[in-house]
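Extended Data, panel c. Modelled sequence:
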Amino acid sequence: MRLRVGTFNVENLVTRQRFGGAQRFGDTAAALSLFNFPQADQRDAVEQSLAVALEDDKRQMTALAMAEGAADIWCLQEVDSLASLQAFFANYVHRISDHRFGHFALLNGNDRRGIEVAFAARRDLIMPAGVTVTSHADATYGDLEVHDSALAEAGIKRADRLFNRDCLMVEMGWADRALTLFLCHFKSMNNGSDDGRAATLPVRRAEALGVTRIIKRHFGPGWRDANWIVAGDLNGFREAIGPRGALQDEGPSGIEPLLDNFATDPLATLPQHDRWTHFRRWWSEAEGVLREQHMQLDHVLLSPALAAANPAPRIDIIRRGQPYRVPLDPLNPDRSIAMLSRTADRYPRVGWDRPKASDHCPVVVEITVP
C-alpha cells in the first residue's frame, strides 16, 4: 500500500481574531497600530473585518500548498476547533484539491491559546470504523517517567501535564496491515529570543522522550517491527542553514530521543541545504546583529520497520506559499529586496510578509506500508 503522509503547521487556523484579551494576531496588529480608534467597539469592528479579509487570502494559499502536496493523510498543527477544521476543508481545500477528506479528528489539548493538533485523511482511504483516536493530553511527567533535575529547576513538577499540546495517537487498520500515527506539536522556542531555545530545550526533550515511552508501551517488545510515524512541528533542529548555505551546528535540539536509535528522518536523505521547513530573521540583542536561518522544524519520522521498507522515499517540501521575504534558495548569497521580490515561484497574491500560506512549509513523505 502506497501512502502520502503530510505534516503542516497551518499557523493559527482559528475562529477568533484574538487569542484573548489584547493579544492580537500578527496579521492584524500592524495595520491597527497605524490608527487611533476613539471607541473600543469601533476598533473591534475594524479588527474583525480586517481579520476576515486577511484570513481568506491566507487560507486560499494554505489550501493551495496542501493541494500541491497531494497527501492522503494530513497531520496538522495550530487548529483551534473541529468546526474550523471542517469548514477549512469544505470551503478551501475541497475547492482546489483532487482529494476529498474526512475522518477529521481534533481533541482539546493543553495549549493555553487553544491551538491543537488535528488529523484528516482521504474519505475513500479507510472505513470510519478503521480509525481510532486517543489523546495523551492528560499524561504527566511522572506518568511517563521523564521528569529530571533540569525540569525541577525550572519549576516543573512530576504531576504537571507533559505535552504542551498533545500526542494524538491515530490508529488506522485495514484487512491486511495497520499504521499508527503520533501527532505532536512540541514546546515552542519563545519566538526566537536569544535564550528561548536553550531555556525550553528540557521541555522538548521530555516531550520527545515521552513519545518514545508511549510507543514502547503501546507496541511492547515488537515496537521496532510495527508501522508507526511521529509527525508534526517538533520545534527542534540540530543544524541550521545560514547565509550562503553555511551549515551551523546548533547543538542539542531536545528531540534527540526520537532521532537517536529510535526513528528515522527521511529528510536526512536530501542535500543538506534542502532540509528546511521554516525561515526566521531576527535581531539578536546579545550579538547586536541581524541574524537569519533556514531550519527544519517539521518532521515525518518513520519507525524502523517503515524505514527499512522505504530506504529512499519520495519527499516533497512545498515552499510556494512562503512570503517573498523568505529566500527559497539558501545557497544564493544575494538577499537583497530587489532579488527576493523577483523570485516569482510563489502562489498568486502572496505578499512580501503577508499574506502567505503559513510560516511553515508542509512536508509530505510517500511510503509503502508493508
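The chain has a mean pLDDT of 93. This feature is highlighted in the accompanying rendering.
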